[in-house]
Amino acid sequence: MGYKLFSIFFMAFGLWAMIDGTQRAMEGIRARSWPVADGRILLSRYDQWRTQKGIRIAGLCIDVQYIYQVGDKVYDGHRINSGWRCFGNQKHLEGFLRKYPSGKKVLVHYNPDDPAQALLEPGLDWTPFFLWGLGLISMSAAWPLLKKGIMPSHRSKT
């Protein structure tokens, strides 16, 4: 019974990863054709996410906040791209901070159907590929166990 629960969990996790990766990829690709607005970086820093007891739950997470105007309305945004904003690599994170320092003028790509949805860098980053790989590995590990639990065993008696 334990392997059934294990396989269902990993199959569901793999399916989630595949769907989330696909949604992120589609958003990044669609954002290439979004209109742009002038914006300005208000805050650019990194932090480590911790629980209330101080336990680190995520590595280095970038916190970039910016404003931009569409028509007569001012919006605020925090997303650089359609991927994750936490990194295990300090150099990668520092590259983003150098690229988007506080006070810098930027072009903000915004969704014309929902101007509150915005990105600084449209296109694909590494996140969808990571999620697709994680999903494939998870479902590949779960499938034989799930199949074993679904299919009756045919053992011949001798």
Per DSSP, the total helix count is 3
User: Number of domains in the coordinates?
Assistant: 2
Indicate the structural class: alpha+beta
Distance between the termini: 27 Å
Shape: globular
Poorly predicted ranges: none
β-strand percent reads 25-35%
Helicity level = 40-55%
What does the main sheet amount to?
6 strands, antiparallel
- Along the chain, the helix and strand elements come as HEEEEHEEH
What would the average pLDDT be, to the nearest integer?
A: 84
Radius of gyration over C-alpha positions, nearest whole angstrom: 21 Å
Number of strands: 6
Kindly describe this structure.
- By secondary structure, this protein is of the alpha+beta class.
- The chain folds into 2 domains: 62 residues; 88 residues, no CATH class.
- Helix content is 41%, strand content 32%.
- It has 3 helices and 6 strands; from the N terminus they run H-E-E-E-E-H-E-E-H.
- Strands 1, 2, 3, 4, 5 and 6 form a 6-stranded antiparallel β-sheet that branches.
- The longest helix is centred in the N-terminal third of the chain and has 30 residues.
- It starts with a helix and ends in an 8-residue tail after the last helix.
Characteristic terms for this protein:
32% strand, six-stranded antiparallel sheet, 158 residues, 6 strands, alpha+beta
Brief overview, please?
This protein has 158 residues and is of the alpha+beta class.
What is this structure's SSE topology?
Blueprint: H1 2-31, E1 36-50, E2 56-70, E3 73-77, E4 86-87, H2 90-99, E5 105-111, E6 114-119, H3 127-150
Antiparallel strand pairs: 1-2, 1-5, 2-3, 2-4, 5-6
